Predict the 3D structure of the following.
Amino acid sequence: MLDRSEVENAFARVAVAAFTYYADKSIDEPGYAIDEDVDWALEPLRSMDADDRGHWRERVSAVISDPASDRQAFIADFMALAEE
């Protein structure tokens, strides 16, 4: 179980990254890679288990880069990381 404030902080970062991402971002910002946003978004969850972290890296990357992703399921699953 993760601390709720850490999960909420990470969730806010995911939202910012998703709102600011666009398909040509790497062209407009040479050297940009989505991994930068994923690393930044998950930074508050540094106590997360390595296996879980790999799973969440994939999900965060998808929710940032794909506007058609199921964000409601993502939000429910992500916030469940802090439920008691």
Q: What stands out?
A: The chain has a mean pLDDT of 95. The two ends are 7 Å apart (CA to CA).
